[in-house]
Amino acid sequence: MKEKILPERESSILTAIVHDYIITGKPVGSRSFVQKYSLSISPATTRNIMYDLEILGYLMQPHTSAGRIPTDMGYRFYVNSLLVSYDFMRKQDATVREDALKKEIQLEKVYSSITKMLSTVSKYSGVMLAPRPDFTVIKRIELLPLDNNEVLVVMVTRTGMVVNKKVVISATVTQDGLHDYSKYLTSELCGYPIFEIRHSVIDRLRSGKPAASIRDLALDIIQLALTGSDEPELYIDGIENLLRIPEMVEEKRLSSLLNIIEEKNILKEILEKTIDTEGVLTLIGDEVENEKVSGCSMVTSSYKIGNKNVGVIGVIGPTRMDYEKVVPLVDYTCNVVSDYFTKMSK
Amino acid sequence: MKEKILPERESSILTAIVHDYIITGKPVGSRSFVQKYSLSISPATTRNIMYDLEILGYLMQPHTSAGRIPTDMGYRFYVNSLLVSYDFMRKQDATVREDALKKEIQLEKVYSSITKMLSTVSKYSGVMLAPRPDFTVIKRIELLPLDNNEVLVVMVTRTGMVVNKKVVISATVTQDGLHDYSKYLTSELCGYPIFEIRHSVIDRLRSGKPAASIRDLALDIIQLALTGSDEPELYIDGIENLLRIPEMVEEKRLSSLLNIIEEKNILKEILEKTIDTEGVLTLIGDEVENEKVSGCSMVTSSYKIGNKNVGVIGVIGPTRMDYEKVVPLVDYTCNVVSDYFTKMSK
DNA sequence: TATTAGCACTCAATATAAATGAGTGCTAAT
DNA sequence: ATTAGCACTCATTTATATTGAGTGCTAATA
User: Fold this and answer.
1) Which H helix or E strand runs over A226?
2) Which domains does chain B have, with CATH numbers?
3) Could you give the angle at the alpha carbon of B4 between the alpha carbons of B2 and B10, nearest 5°?
4) CB contact under 8 A, B152 and A106
5) CB B50 under 7 Å to nucleic chain D
6) Minimal Cα–Cα distance from A61 to chain B, Å?
7) pTM to 2 decimal places
């Protein structure tokens, strides 16, 4: 959809109006507007311009004798005309620092610290769609005896994360036996992503030339360890923040929000749709095509491992969100996350 | 503090009033009260009794011409006179089933599923103070090479949980070397709780008779792996639920609540204080001696490993909480958790 | 003596009416 | 094109009844 070109003055007034509304949350009226910004045009002129902008669909009036508020299209214009400045990021030291993440070997903690940080800095709610577990590339497998017939499967991923699974087997095996299994599995499966292991590698190995006797049981164990859903997990943080925003609390928007939190699937779907987008994506109001999140906006960006998009991070807030700060925040964080995953996977 | 004995009729009226207020949240007036419960006494008599109960401190009036609401003391009387019935627990299949927990080897997930369940069933907020990490008894230690000079320390606890730590060392060691270290560490440290290992066992081993050359580096590694805070972690779930309760949302109680969620320390302290209590503890309103949580009540219970109290679970809600359901819920869940931990640690 | 009908009184909550003020659109003059 | 001026609109605020569920007290009743 092509955007109409607005004359300079109209454009800057529109931008200013949207900006003002984002800050104050109150409809912007002509008189107080020119006064506040000491403009050199009269309220009447402003009114005329506002009228034009309303006809064009950028502004609307909540009721006849009120000031103007931006439509979704108005926000869109504002966001598009935003020359994103990363200045304020320098002042923020609460940002994710890559080296802080590096110490962590538990995926869940990495994810939650990223969302926590997004919500803390933005003062809205931070979300993260984790990479599909199936894309994880296995680097090393170690089997350890736990109990009579329980085996602990320790899998080290290419990104340096460690995943544990408990597997119950019928046969009993010695510790030395398991040690051999581990070597076998590591040598055969190292470098493969989980989905390949599940769908082809195991079958290939099974039907291959009759190998050592260890083969079948070892494969049984890893097969069990890799069972489980391939759903990418969704992390949310900072819902409390949204409750500090008046227009969120009002009406039934609150309960609609709580529903979303409870059934994360809706959000998951929305985020999954955006995964192939490059750069920061702002979804304003109804652009998020889901009536349950009407009145909300999302700023998202897909992070990568290497040059493949594997997941999405983002911030959810009211339509009246401080895009000027959130956009660079999401962009910056996304880069950090991409770098982190990419470096780790080398 | 000894409780005054109330005559049968007074007592049952008080109980009924508190009950009614818990359900409706509205001050209970004499006329509608007798009507609603088709009592055989007149409103006037009820008023007299209410007056007495007010003098005794069980009830109060929000304003002169309103009905009565319970004081903290009134709630206390109600809770004390509660003959806890576990009937409804049978109908709840959303409760934690021990066998569901048994499949899990990640402590964090066990904890969060317990709190999630507490909040889901109670419709309030579920909390859990996890056992101090230092009390964990080590059953088995395994060292695996990760990278050049990074070692993955896998610790299996007596309760069957698995804890991973990454340790960076200066020396380089072979895989076989690590294997020997593992054996050494397991044989020396198995059966000791972490705090003993930290405070005495390591020292003792170090100063013992000069052992194999592996000793010192092995001890270095485990020492690094065991560094870290001994703070018991706090898990919270279902804050959303509290936002559905009118009196929580009103005034600044909401923000006070959000603060608590943000700095978990306050709650931690409160819960830690209760850890040596046996059975279910109800803290009503100001009995939680912290002005930040005024207007809230907590129902808690300490769970055990063997016969030692190691942590606390509980439910946080408004003073006007449905104690009749929450008390058995917390009690029951606590038993399940105790049994679970105890069985696992055998 | 314990209970209750009756009555005057209170006061939050609700409904109704008036006043305010920030906003608009339109027109005519600059 | 811009703007001063003016009549008009309407959410918000303020002021003013009205209502109704509640109380306490007193005197009659069982």
Assistant:
1) helix A214-226
2) 8-80 (1.10.10.10), 87-132+233-344 (3.30.450.40), 134-226 (3.30.390.60)
3) 150
4) no
5) yes
6) 30
7) 0.88
- A109, A95, A118: which is closest to A313 by C-alpha? A118
The string of DSSP codes covering B28-54 is: BPHHHHHHHTT-SS-HHHHHHHHHHHH
**Alpha-helical segments (H) within B25-143:** 30-36, 43-56, 72-80, 87-91, 98-102, 107-122
**pLDDT tens sequence across B26-54:** 999 999 999 999 899 999 999 999 999 99
Q: How far apart are CA A14 and CA A59, in angstroms?
A: 8
Chain B residues 77-116 with a CB less than 8 Å from chain A: 103, 105-106, 108
Residues of A in contact with B255 (CB under 8 A): 244
What is the spatial distance between Cα B129 and Cα B108, in angstroms, rounded to a whole number? 12
User: Is there a contact between B9 and B49 (Cβ–Cβ < 8 Å)?
Assistant: yes
What Cα–Cα distance (Å) separates residue B299 from each residue in A199, A270, A337, B214, B255? Answer: 49, 38, 41, 51, 22
Separation CA B232–CA B195 (nearest Å): 13
Which residue is associated with the tokens 């590339």? A137
Which of A146, A147, A155 to probe by mutation at the B interface, max B CB count within 10 Å?
Answer: A146
Residue B248: name the closest of B340, B320, B142, B147 by CA: B320
B243: nearest CB among A142, A254, A262: A254
- Residue A276 one-letter amino acid: D
Collapsing DSSP states into helix, strand and coil, what is residue B141?
A: strand
> Which residues are within 8 A (CB) of A145 and not within 5 positions of it... i.e. 6 or more apart?
A151, A152, A173, A174, A175, A178
Q: Which of B213, B202, B259 is CA-nearest to residue B236?
A: B259
A68 touches strand C (CB under 7 A): yes
pLDDT at B271 over 50: yes
| pLDDT, tens only, A1-57 | 445 578 889 999 999 999 999 999 999 999 999 999 989 999 999 999 999 999 999
Distance CA B137, CA B306 (A): 13
Q: Which residues from chain A sit within 8 angstroms of residue B258, using beta carbons?
A: 240, 243-244
d(CA B57, CA A256): 41
Q: Say how far apart CA B237 and CA B249 lie, in whole Å.
A: 18
A66 touches strand C (CB under 7 A): yes
